[in-house]
Design a protein that fits this description.
binds zinc ion; seven-stranded antiparallel beta sheet; isomerase; binds 6-O-phosphono-alpha-D-glucopyranose; 567 residues
Length: 567
């Protein structure tokens, strides 16, 4: 069918600046006339014309409300802007890791991901659009800055109004647009990703664990998709491929509003999983976020594994995973606020260990340059260079691989790890939905203290009674990072207060919220003494948290006397 191109006049919208991970706003914002179209045109314009003409882009999302509308818009506009083919997930569904996997596999020019990750969805919730480049990873800042610059100048966009894509049928359809062919291929949502997992892990061994055999009972676990995109992936991999019963997977139907839940796998929003694990029946539990790149791991009786520890344990046990046994661990990395647990593993293995700003995109260059194979973030992100996104289901399969190889429980694996390396106690306190001005004030107070070095060498005390503890400040800074591969500088990435014993306080504003501000306070301290490893993190870190609140004047400036979420 031959279709016409229409040029539609438009004018710029304020604030179309991609955050830590794409443009995220309330659905109602994206529903404004021309809003989504403007942003999509700027993404397409950011691809140089000679690379855009006839190129292939991968498109899919986490199933949230407005995703289907957005896919139709993208299809009409991609056709009109000379794109050759869109590869779209069946029913529009692709997890974020699956998009990364397919971009790399079919050597696409890039991908457009329709997700606001762990933010709630539905007509009253959030929507998001993220652009990934040809390495399969989130677009680097040079690209997102260019997209943003274009959003401020846009005067028109192009579309083919007659195109409507049937998302519910697998297969291809083509249209003729100004002498070129535009094809849409609707592709199975889980097949490519499942094949990749089979290359990375030993499915026969995992199947024995999960299904049991003559000398072993089936291993009891539960995986919760939180009504997000991982449902079909869990069903296919855990149930169909590895033989787990249906009852081992929960909330596996992707819902437009995530069933009204907040699809963020932490102890607050996945409280139902925590309660279930407390019953002591399951040996491991996992939850995943809306778009499938985050994960939370719990052991029996709801023993919580911090994401900082999780990636460090995977590093220490990398040889239990066939992929790493083959490629070796080239190096490791973590985001700045993530605890130093993985650094100690890296040092022991004598491999490079990088500290990058918050945001998965900062790992991409290191992976492409083959400097790292494994990385993680405190924000429940764990992943490797098999793709260029963090990967929730991969992390769970990694844990299952360690459990089956070491024949130990989650808790024993953790205890053994702490015995070997010491324990980094870690907490993150989030103050959500704070007035933006007040949040900026908090950061200003801290920045000032960094600028005039007023905290350095000071002894600060927190906690009360027997729990009182003092720490001496060694240094303070506002974290900045020079990418070792391309030399780009990223500054103002969070205030760090580092103490003489290696303990740290970190303050930064979230880059993923859609309204107002979220202040994150990260608290970390190191304990080498094994007899103290089983203490509660919140007790151990109470004095440091008091110090954090004191030096930031957070309570006074924001009027908040408690965090909204503690992870
Ligand atoms: C997204 C990114 C992560 C990052 C996180 C930080 O999930 O993919 O790489 O760690 O956002 O979010 P924040 O709200 O702390 O900026
Ligand atoms: Zn996510």
């Amino acid at each position: 069918m031959v279709v016409e191109v229409t040029v539609q006049e438009t004018s710029p919208f304020d604030g179309q600046k991609p955050g830590t991970s794409g443009l995220r706003k309330a659905v109602t914002v994206f529903q404004q006339k021309h809003y989504t179209e403007n942003f999509v045109q700027c993404i397409l314009d950011s691809i140089p014309e000679e690379k855009r003409k006839g190129c292939t882009l991968v498109v899919g999302g986490d199933g949230r409300f407005f995703m289907r509308d957005a896919i139709q818009i993208i299809s009409r506009m991609a056709a009109a802007n000379g794109v050759g083919e869109l590869v779209i997930g069946h029913n529009g569904i692709f997890s974020t890791p699956a998009v990364s996997c397919i971009i790399r596999k079919i050597k696409a020019r890039g991908g457009i991901l329709l997700t606001a990750s762990h933010n709630p969805g539905g007509p009253e919730g959030d929507f998001g659009i993220k652009y990934n480049t040809e390495n399969g990873g989130p677009a680097p800042e040079a690209v997102t800055n260019e997209i943003f610059a274009r959003t401020g100048k846009i005067t028109s966009y192009k579309l083919c109004k007659e195109i409507t894509v049937d998302l519910d049928t697998i297969g291809s359809n083509s249209w003729e647009v100004e002498g070129h062919t535009f094809t849409v291929t609707v592709r199975d949502s889980v097949e490519d990703y499942t094949q990749l997992m089979k290359e990375i892990f030993d499915f026969d061994l995992l199947k024995k664990l999960i299904s049991g055999d003559s000398d072993q009972q089936p291993f009891k676990f539960v995986a919760n998709a939180m009504n997000g995109v991982t449902g079909p992936y869990l069903k296919r991999i855990l149930c169909q491929e590895l033989g787990a019963p249906d009852s081992a997977t929960l909330k596996c139907e992707p819902k437009e509003d995530f069933g009204g839940d907040h699809p963020d796998p932490n102890q607050t929003y996945a409280a139902d999983l925590l309660e279930l694990l407390k019953e002591g029946v399951h040996q491991i539990g996992a939850a995943f976020d809306g778009d499938g790149d985050r994960n939370m791991i719990l052991g029996q009786n709801a023993f919580f594994v911090t994401p900082s520890d999780s990636v460090a344990v995977i590093a220490d046990n990398a040889m239990c995973i066939p992929y790493f046994a083959k490629t070796g661990l080239k190096g490791v990395a973590r985001s700045m606020p993530t605890s130093a647990a993985i650094d100690r593993v890296g040092q022991k293995m004598r491999i490079e260990c990088f500290e990058v700003p918050t945001g998965w995109k900062f790992f991409g260059n290191l992976m492409d340059a083959e400097r790292i194979s494994l990385c993680g973030e405190e924000s429940f992100g764990t992943g490797s260079d098999h793709i260029r996104e963090k990967d929730g289901v991969w992390a769970f399969l990694a844990w299952l691989s360690i459990i089956v190889s070491r024949k130990m429980s989650v808790q024993d694996i953790m205890k053994d790890f702490w015995k070997k390396y010491g324990r980094s106690f870690f907490l993150r306190c989030d103050y959500e939905n704070v007035d933006s001005e007040a949040a900026n004030k908090v950061i200003e107070v801290l920045r000032k203290a960094v600028e005039d070095s007023s905290l350095v060498n000071k002894t600060l005390t927190g906690g009360s009674g027997k729990e009182q503890k003092s720490y001496q400040v060694k240094s303070t800074d506002d974290f900045s990072y020079t990418d070792p591969i391309d030399g780009s500088l990223t500054s103002k990435q969070g205030i760090r207060v580092i103490f003489t014993d290696g303990s740290r306080l970190i303050f930064r504003l979230s880059g993923t919220g859609s309204t107002n501000a979220t202040i994150r306070v990260y608290v970390e301290s190191y304990e080498p003494d094994e007899s103290k490893h089983m203490q509660e993190a919140k007790n151990v870190l109470k004095p440091l948290l008091d110090i954090a609140l004191d030096i930031s004047q957070l309570q006074k400036l924001t009027g908040r006397d408690a965090p909204t979420v503690i992870t």
